[in-house]
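Translate sequence into structure tokens.
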Amino acid sequence: MHSKITTLDNGLRVLTCERPETETVSLGVWVNTGSAYETKEINGISHFLEHMSFKGTKTRSALQISEEIEDAGGQSNAYTSREFTAFYAKMLKNDAELATDILADTLNNSVFPEEELVKEREVVVQEIKQSIDAPDDIIFDYFQEQAFPNQPIGRTILGPIETVRSFTRDNLQNYLDTHYAAENMVACAVGNINHDDFVRMVKERMQNFRRKPLFTKPEQTYSGGFFAEKRDIEQAHVMLGFKGFEYYSEKYYPNIIFSTIFGGGTTSRLFQEIREKRGLAYTVYSFTTSHTKNGLCGIYAGTDPDDLKTLVPVITDEIKRICNEKISEKELKRAKTQLKASMLMSLESSSSTAEIIARQMLLFGRVIPTEEMVERIENVTQNDVLNIAGEIFSSNPIYCLVGAVDNRIEYDELKQLLKA
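Result follows.
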């Protein structure tokens, strides 16, 4: 993976990974902002701005933006997370300049027309309601809120309905002006494109952004806690969580390997014990989430309400087992192989590669060579995994439930099970 980087006069980094043997190019703009950097009064505006950016510019209507991309056979999209927002497209190699022009136009020249603003508020409200209606989706928002209560990082990405309905054109323009700064952004292209050509395309269109953002990144203080929401549905959805590690931690890779062993696939301990041996759940897994100043380790399962009081003690038993038993060499090797394979497979896709290297540039100020990532994975030892497990599970737990949850173990009982 050979990348090139050029920094424009305003501080915007232009990043490419040339693949001349392909017929396409994936390109976009990644911004180091999201819901974690919003005040409570504008929670959800990062996501709403992402929607509204495609609703008309000084020279293109919303329909024209879609037509120009699709008339060329291309695809475009955007997403918002807690700390990143991205606008991207995948095109045939000869249409890279068209895509760059459209994306730059949506970021530089959006006019946020009132009629589109009114409609899109309700579109996003429907997106929020759809999330609320899905218990295996909304539980992750409850989980994040218990991890980081009363903090931007703990709030939802979509925002509350009443807040979204209050957004104005001035709110959007102000957020764009303060958060979308050149040093806070990366333009990235991967595929059949010449680096100098892409630099020219970006330079001609994206020189107007201010150099530095006008916001500060708040602290992310882990807490833990309990939340239960009773619903008249067939399942009980349950999540347990603990304090994890930020992107920059030396424990980042040991943490991912630990999670893979514990609940990352069909051979993982949680899957084998809970689904294969006991039949207590169809879906069960563990995961890690890293942020810039903190992180989480979580466990999710959906079970029959009658099995809820059985499921949670089985999970806590597996937690204690992985903290006290030596990780086998076979487990460690398998987890490393899974992680390396997943990474290398992702890097075969131009879209995934653009995502990976753009985020690395925003987080670390450089593209991390594949060989370095592989080496970090290989260097993880059995003791590293054991130590990570002990550190994670010594933190104050998060315990969230949604659904038919009357037959549950209470929070204090859970904490006692973890200590026993």
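Note: The mean pLDDT is 97.
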